[in-house]
Amino acid sequence: MTGNYEAYCRDLLISIRKITRAIDLHSIYLKKEFGLTIPQLIILLEVSNTKEISITDLSKLINLSQATVTDIVNRLVKNQFLSKERNDKDKRMVVIKPLKKCMNLLEQAPPPLQEVFTQRFAALENWEQLMLLSALSRVVNLMSAEEIDAAPILTSGSI
C-alpha cells in the first residue's frame, strides 16, 4: 500500500461528511425559515412551473413514487399552498394547482440544493462530469450502498 492512503481516506471521509452536513444545514434552514422540507419545496416549484399537473405526471417529473407525492401534496393542500381540482376536460382526473400562498413563498425561498449543484455541474467539462460520476459511483460501491433506492433530491432522512 502507498503511504498516503490513510491521508487520502481521511480527506475523502471529511469530504463525504461535508456533503452530508451541507444537505442537513440546507434542510434545517428551509424548515426553520419557511416551514418546508426539501421535497415539499421541489413539489411547489414544479407545480408552480406547470400551473396544473396530475399526481402521476408530477411523480414522474420529480422521480418519486405516486404514494410519496400524494402524501406530500395532501400536506401542502392542507396548509393551503396547493389545491386539488377536477380537470376541466376530464372530470375523472384530479389536477394540482398552486395557490397564492405558494407563489408568495416561492418568491422568498432559496432554490433546492440540487438546483445549484446541477447548474454548477452543467458548467463543468464533459470529462470532469464523467470523472466525478465515476468517482462517486465508486464511493457508493465502497460503502456497499448500491442497492439503496434514492431519488435525485438532496435531502436528509426519508422523503
List its traits.
159 residues; mainly alpha; three-stranded antiparallel beta sheet; 8% strand; elongated
Textual characterization of the structure:
With 159 residues, the chain is mainly α. It is elongated, with a radius of gyration of 19 Å. The model has no long low-confidence stretch (mean pLDDT 91). Helix content is 63%, strand content 8%.
- Listing every helix as H and every strand as E from the N terminus to the C terminus, the arrangement reads HHEHHEEHHH
Average of per-residue pLDDT values: 91
As residue ranges, the low-confidence spans are none
Number of helices: 7
Described by the principal axes of the CA atoms, the overall outline is elongated
| Approximate strand percentage | 5-15%
Query: What is the strand tally?
Result: 3
**Class computed from helices, strands and strand pairing:** mainly alpha
Distance between the termini: 40 Å
How are strands sequenced across the largest beta sheet? 1-3-2
Largest sheet: 3 strands, antiparallel
- Gyration radius from CA atoms, angstroms: 19 Å
Helical residues, percent: 55-70%
Question: What is the topology?
Answer:
Blueprint: H1 5-34, H2 38-50, E1 53-54, H3 55-62, H4 66-78, E2 82-86, E3 94-98, H5 100-108, H6 113-122, H7 126-142
Give me a quick take on this structure.
By secondary structure, the protein is mostly helical.
